[in-house]
Each structure stands twice: as C-alpha cells, then as structure tokens.
Amino acid sequence: MDSELLAMEKFRNLSLLFIFSAYGCEGNQSALNATGSSAKIISDMFWWMLIGAALIWIIFISLGFYAIKHKSEADESRRKSLFVIGGGVVFPTVILSFLLYFSLTPLPKLLEPAPSGSLRLEVSGAQWWWRVRYPLENGNFVELANEIRLPVGEPVEIKLTSEDVIHSFWVPSLAGKMDMIPGNVTKLSFTPEKVGLFKGACAEYCGASHALMQLDVVVMKKEAFQEWLDWQKRPALEAKTAMAVKGKVSFKQNGCVACHTVRGVESRGVIGPDLTHVGSRLRLGAGVMINSIPSYHQWISRVEEIKPGVKMPSFNMISNEDIKAISVWLEGLK
User: Fold this and answer.
1) pLDDT by residue (tens digit) across 7-45?
2) H or E stretch covering 246
3) What distances in angstroms separate CA 217 from CA 9, 28, 145, 195, one per listed residue?
4) For strand 289-290 and strand 283-284, is the pairing parallel, antiparallel, or unpaired?
5) CA distance 175 to 178
6) How far apart are CA 265 and CA 250, in angstroms?
7) Burial zone of 230 (CB within 10 Å; 0-12 exposed, 13-18 middle, 19+ buried)
8) Which end of the chain is less enclosed by CB atoms within 10 A, N or C?
C-alpha cells in the first residue's frame, strides 16, 4: 500500500513538473514562443538540438542496459564490437555532424543587416535603464526610455551600445541576445511578426540592480505605430490643472532639469531618461513599477530603496506636497 502511495506521489510530482515546464515555453518572454524572424530560427535550432541530444542519450542508455543485462559469450564479441562502433561512434558522429551543419547554416541569415529603407533605431544601455532613440530624416531624433515600439511585419535594425559597463540586449520572443559594449556598436536585425507586448531584459550581469533592468517592446499595426511616432515627435503637453502647474514649477525648482529632458519645457538634462512623454509609457524605472501617480511618488521619494545603486538620489528632502504635484504633472505627460 505504501509503495502504491509513493508511486502515485512520484507520478503527481512528475506531472506537475511537466505542466510547469510546458507553461514556461509560453509567455511574452520565452525564446520558445517565437514571434520574430530571428527568434524562430533560434527556436528551430533548439528543438533540433534537443532531438539530436535525445537520440544520442537513448542510444547510450540502451548500450548501457545491454551491457548490464546481456550475458557475455565468446562468440558474441563481433556483435558487441558492432554495437560499440555503431552505437557509440558512428551514430553520434552522424548526428553531431548534422547538428553542426544545421546550427552553422542559419548564421548568415541571423547576422545579415536589415534591407535598405528599414526602420532603424538606437538603444544604449546604462546602469540600470535603456535609452531609446528613433532617428528622424531631418537629423533629429525622438528619444524615450525603457520602451520600444515597432511596426508588425517590418524589418528593423537596432544599433546597440553601452554608456558604462557591458550590457546585453535580449527580447527572447523576437530575437537572440546581443552584447552592448562601451565604445563599440553592435547591430541586431529582425522582423516582428505578431502584434503584442513582449518583455526584454539585460542578459549580462551589470551591477547591483541588474535584475531590475527590464524592457517593454510593443509591436503594433503599421498605422498605429506611425501615429504613435508622430505623437512622440511633439513637445510635452501643457499642464492643465493647478496641481500639474505646481508640479511643473517644482520640477524645475528642485533641480530635476539638470538630469532630464522634457521637450517644450526649459529642461535639457541628458544624464537621465527623457521624460517628454513619460506618462504614455507602460512602466517606470525600467520595468519595476506600473505607470501611476503613486508609483511616481514612491520613485521620487525613495528611489534608492527601489533600485539599489541607482545614480538618481532619493528626493525625500522636499515636501510631500511638492512630490505629489510633480507626480501628477509627470503622469499627465502623455
């Protein structure tokens, strides 16, 4: 009876493990839920590698069981030699050669640049956030932070660099990871093939808040993307309420303009993220908080607790009323 219960318990645990493992293959941050041209190539390579490894494992386990269970007889030495040479040498060599060929042939396609006329943008990593720029035809650019928006079905090329230490740009559902190295420019090209929200992250340890350096990538219909980009080109909206006007004044008086840009306002700082349309972004602090007035309040007053090691100081020395007003103004910058 006890053995039956133990067997049932093992079966249940294995079933749960399988279910949770299968669930991990889905989601908007899974390399196996491929929705980008490059990610699909990488996903196919993974499955072929897994199948090849499983075949080699089965052969070796079978040989092991055969050696343990089968009694040794003098006239079977030739058969044993065939098993060892065929199963232990020839078969793995054939499988591994096939996998090597299959893994090398897609590399040129993964590394080829986007076609002429494709969307191009620049992403630079900094401890611990992402600076995103969309170059414009007039030589200017639209800048935002911690969020990328792309048109579905259109090739894109992203130029990557770092402002401090080595980072690594990775949006698993769209493309493979690419290192971002100070003083160098690397490029990543792919075509997003499905509308949706996809999560990215820094895939190279870069300091205390490495785990809090996340990224949102929104793939949109072409028309919606163009409308969004046209809106991002505009200066910040005018403050419409008394609280928002007070927040705008407090933002200037408390030195925030030294580090942040808000186009349309006397704010030209470049050390921190551009906040011109910060209220329209999905999350704050490189993905650590939802975009809401309470989140702005917490970020301004105790940012060093939320993201250890961050360069922005906590502004808990200014009044709670000023922090609330600044939060209201920033949340309104749609």
Assistant:
1) 556 556 555 554 445 445 556 677 778 888 888 888 888
2) helix 242-253
3) 42, 10, 11, 10
4) antiparallel
5) 9
6) 13
7) exposed
8) N
Q: What is the pLDDT of residues 141-174, one digit of tens each?
A: 999 999 999 999 999 999 999 999 999 999 999 9
| Structure token digits, residue 159 | 């130029």
Nearest Cα to Cα of residue 218 among 292, 131, 281: 281
Coil, strand or helix at 278: helix
The C-alpha atoms of residue 69 and residue 4 are separated, in whole angstroms, by 27
Q: Which residues of 79-106 are buried (b: 16+ CB within 10 A; e: fewer)?
A: eeeebeeebeeeeeeebeeebeeeeeee
Whole-number Å distance between alpha carbons of 246 and 149: 31
Helical (H) or strand (E) element with 22 = helix 2-23
Q: How far is CA 148 from CA 8, 144, 199, in A?
A: 48, 8, 10
pTM greater than the 0.90 cutoff: no
Any idea which residue has 């003083």 for tokens? 183
